[in-house]
Amino acid sequence: MTALKLKPDVLTQRAWRRFKANRRGYVSLWVFSILFLLSLFAEVLSNDKPLVVYYESGLYFPLFKSYPETTFGGDFDTETDYTDPYVKTLLKKGSNWAIYPLNPYSYETINYFTKHPNPAPPSTDNLLGTDDRGRDVFARLIYGFRLSVLFAFVLTLIGIVLGVVAGALQGYLGGRFDLFAQRLIEIWGSMPELYLLIIFASLFEPSVLLLIILLSLFGWMGLADYVRAEFLRGRNMDYVTAAKAMGVSHRSIMFRHLLPNSMTPVITFLPFRISAAIMALTSLDFLGLGVPPTTPSIGELLAQGKENIDAWWLSMTTFGVLVGTLVLLIFIGEALREAMDIRRG
Amino acid sequence: MTNTETLLSVQNLSVAFGRTGEQQSQVVHEVSFDITAGEKLALVGESGSGKSVTAMSILGLHDPSQTNYPTGEIKFQGMNLLKLDDAALRRVRGREIAMIFQEPMTSLNPVYTIGDQLTEPLILHQDISKEQARQRAIELLDRTGIVEPHKRIDAFPHMLSGGQRQRVMIAMALACSPKLLIADEPTTALDVTVQAQIIELLEDIQNEFGMAVLMITHDLNMVRRFAKQVCVMQHGKIVEQATVDQLFAQPQHEYTKRLLDSQPKCLIEQTSAEQRQSWPTVLNTESLRCYFQIKAGFFRRQVGEVRAVDNISLTLRQGETVGIVGESGSGKTTLGMCLLRLQDCEGSIIFNGQDLQQIKSREMRPLRQHFQIVFQDPFSSLSPRMTIEQIIREGLEIHFPEQTAEQHRERILKVLDEVGLEESMLWRYPHEFSGGQRQRIAIARAVVLEPKVIMLDEPTSALDVSVQKQVLELLVDLQRKHNISYLFITHDLAVIRAMAHRIIVMKSGQLVEEGETEPLFTAPQQDYTRLLLQASLYREAQ
Predict the structure, then answer these.
(1) Does ipTM exceed 0.90?
(2) Residue B49 class from Cβ within 10 Å (0-12 exposed, 13-18 middle, 19+ buried)?
(3) Which residues pair with B302 in a beta bridge?
(4) Digit-coded pLDDT (tens) for B52-83
(5) B219 CA to chain A: closest CA distance, Å?
(6) Which one-letter DSSP state was computed for residue B280?
(7) Is B66 exposed, middle or buried (0-12, 13-18, 19+ CB in 10 A)?
(8) Is A260 an 8 Å CB contact of chain B?
């Protein structure tokens, strides 16, 4: 029984050892994981609301609950604007105190009190300056990075699932089904994706969900071709005949025998697909066809950098984040590919 | 014609792979042998013994950045071939020393006609015009026994059969009348009757041109038939060197004795046909037919058909081995696929009292437990991304779902022990095993289900002779223990003689002859059977 339990561990351990053997990918994984984990807590790291407020012997958590300004002795019944200098003085009065996040701006906080005209260069107030509407660039980069990566992961996952299923069915069933599916893909693939996006952007309210759906509709075809070819090759191998002779069901043959042997294109293209997804979102935002304007987005920052060519802190920082992310992902993907290669011992 | 002058002299040759300074693996250790002009020398050994590596270094065909020669020299007519530069070496290749390879399917370039490929060395080495070269090529094709050479010269390699392609390869090698011909397993990929023809051709040509031949092979029958001198190689060393007569009469080295001994002898208990009458029948087919339609044209009209299996009736009893013998393309594998219902066919298949043709594929699934298969190529019959345990366990999960994982595990361990593998191998992947071990795994996968019938499709053809014998013994052992019936498909008559109770000879889909093993071997009734026997057992008679 102990040996039974041992088995999967041994296999994953070996895969992990192969992954670690690629130092570059291993370090990249750590760097990326830390950055991504931090960005998941962006609200705590970069926000215009204090984390904790101590006001007249009571503790308040503005991050999780909204309090009207009157709670802190202000004038309005609306939610407190913690960037207001008047509110700030109220929170510092006497024994009151407030702990602010490290970067006291959210992605849509406008700094009305900057000493420079917008876009403002980096200063002690705004570490990486502000954009042309006075929003903190550092905050927008953190939120934009998180959105891009999450978007890319979801889009890639959907693309892989659709592509693998479509390719597997075509390759395994072959014959007439394959013929019709292949023609369908050719027709579908010749549709002008970008024009469709422009049309849909004007028909519907632009949103992240709409973008994911639209890009998913077109993103699976390239992979389906490769998986189909792998299945076509694999289904004539002796081990498939052996499985059939053993009475293994079709589904089991597809998923247990053929799929693991057809994962090479999936794994190989994984890092490129993730980077392509990030680039797709970035370029659509750059063109103004992507997410709604208030959403923090790397592409929108790049577009601002183009508009304000002398505001180097806009274009250079965004460029740095974008390139860094893509490079890290590619390195990780490379190590992942080596880890999945069982022949490496 | 016999010339005692030494043509090629290999002295203390060692070959190592890997870059200098890094980890190197030495595969050939201080090998020495001489070939005089017109001599026939055979290098014999199992796969991995370094015989091909030795031959390749004579022509300098190894990648120089990956290969080192720590010691030794190769002297050809006084020149040390290892010290020659590229240009000088090219002059030797093809003109002085020619080589033919094992795989005639891949050693001809598929996009050129054989005429293009034949005239290339002629124009390169002999400085003659295109017309003359073409004329000479036709002569060569004619000499190597190609019918209608003036038409065939414009054929592409895929239009020729395996034997014809090997003839073309020989014609290419002969093009510049070399002094030495290196033949690397020239007949391994061919059918037995074709093998005999090719060997005869090589002998004729050797006599006529008076060149020396270095034959690399694992086939002892062929050595005996063809060579005069033999070098036996093991683990990169020459362990014995003698004339053919000496070696076969009085082998000196342990390994040579083992090699000679590994020719399969009768492994099964002799039983008479009457005795076996009482054994229950497990499989019976009546006039089985499998025709493939050839369709052509826009409307997919049927223009002909290939009769892969034509009216075959056979009976298999419990605990019995029936051999199905035939050359490639005789339909023996298709017959096996039909019996397993992996290929549609007509006629009745009664297995275990049930007509397999009448039941649906869903109902077929539980029956499959009793009818298993072991394939020829142990490298492609095991899924490369599954561990050995997953491979063996899969069938148990399907056919014995009521048993717990521990019970499955016990059975897996038991079967591993039976086929001679260790428990620690369970978590390894197929590529970590040798060919023989892989074949044992494939057998374990079949046997663990306790089947009534196992179809063995050339189970030993891809294995070395000594391993082949072990696997055959294992199969007989399992048969005795579990009373399994075998359908043994093979082209190797020596193997089938050792294994089968009864034999069916097939030719182009039809049954040529059927009978008890020994009578069939000693007194074949049909011409075709006689031809097969002659071709493959030409040395057995001695």
Answers:
(1) no
(2) buried
(3) B295
(4) 888 888 888 887 777 888 888 888 888 888 88
(5) 27
(6) P
(7) exposed
(8) yes
Q: Are strands B180-184 and B212-217 parallel, antiparallel or unpaired?
A: parallel
Residue A75 has pLDDT above 50, yes or no: yes
- Res B477 pLDDT > 70: yes
Partner-chain contact A239 B405, CB within 8 Å: no
Residues within 8 A of A (CB atoms), B 242-301 only: none
Tell me, what's the pLDDT at B491?
82
The pLDDT assigned to A3 comes to 42
According to the model, what pLDDT value does residue A8 have? 55
Sheet hosting strand B485-490, strand order edge to edge: B371-374, B453-457, B485-490, B321-325, B502-507, B510-516
Which residues lie across from B230 on neighbouring strands? Answer: B42, B242
CA distances for A50 relative to A45, A53, A55, A64, A91, angstroms = 10, 7, 12, 10, 10
How far does the CA of residue A341 sit from the closest CA of chain B (Å)?
A: 9
Count residue pairs from A and B with Cβ separation < 8 A.
Answer: 79
| Separation CA A238–CA A220 (nearest Å) | 29
In this predicted structure, the answer to whether residue A34 has a pLDDT above a threshold of 90 is: yes
Q: What proportion of chain B, given as a percentage, has pLDDT over 70?
A: 96
| Residue from the list A237, A239, A246 with its beta carbon closest to the beta carbon of B368 | A246
Q: What is the pLDDT of residue A345?
A: 55
Q: Which among B106, B103, B102, B98 is positioned nearest to B182, based on CA atoms?
A: B98
Q: Residue A101 has what DSSP assignment?
A: P
Q: What is the dihedral of CA B83, B84, B89, B91, to 10 degrees?
A: -140
Q: Could you say which of A10, A247, A342 has the minimum Cβ distance to residue B368?
A: A247
List beta partners, residue B180: B97, B212
Tally Cβ neighbours within 10 Å of residue B229: 21
Return left, alpha or beta for B10; rule: phi > 0 is left, psi -120 to 50 is alpha, else beta: beta
Q: Residue B151: its pLDDT value, please?
A: 82
The yes-or-no verdict on residue B4 having pLDDT over 80 is no
What residues contact residue A68 under an 8 Å CB cut-off, 6+ apart?
Answer: A74, A76, A77, A78, A79, A80
Mean pLDDT lowest among A184-198, B267-281, B317-331, B513-527: B267-281
The whole-angstrom separation of Cα B542 and Cα B537 is 10
- Region of poorest pLDDT, from A317-326, B273-282, B473-482, B515-524: B273-282
**CB burial class (10 A; 0-12, 13-18, 19+) of residue A176?**
exposed
At A155, phi and psi to the nearest 5? Answer: -60, -40
Contact yes or no for B469/B262 (Cβ under 8 A): yes
Pairing of strands B212-217, B40-44: parallel
A243 close contact with B: CB closer than 8 A = yes
Nearest-neighbour CA in chain B from A234: distance (Å): 10
Beta-carbon count within 10 A of B336 CB: 20
Which residue bears the tokens 């030797």? B92
Which residue in chain B has the smallest CA separation from A1? B406
CA separation for the pair A224, A163 (Å, rounded): 4
Q: What are phi and psi of B71, to 5 degrees?
A: -135, 165
Subunit contact A248:B398, Cβ cutoff 8 A: yes
b/e map A300-320, b = 16+ CB within 10 Å: bbbbbbeebeebebbbebbee
Nearest CB to A246: which of B387, B394, B426? B394
Q: How confident is the model over B218-268, as pLDDT tens digits?
A: 888 788 888 888 999 888 888 888 888 888 888 888 888 888 777 767 777
- Put simply, the answer to whether B377 touches A238 (Cβ < 8 Å) is yes
Beta bridge partners of B234: B237
**Residues of chain B with C-beta less than 8 angstroms from the C-beta of A242:** 373, 375, 381, 442, 445
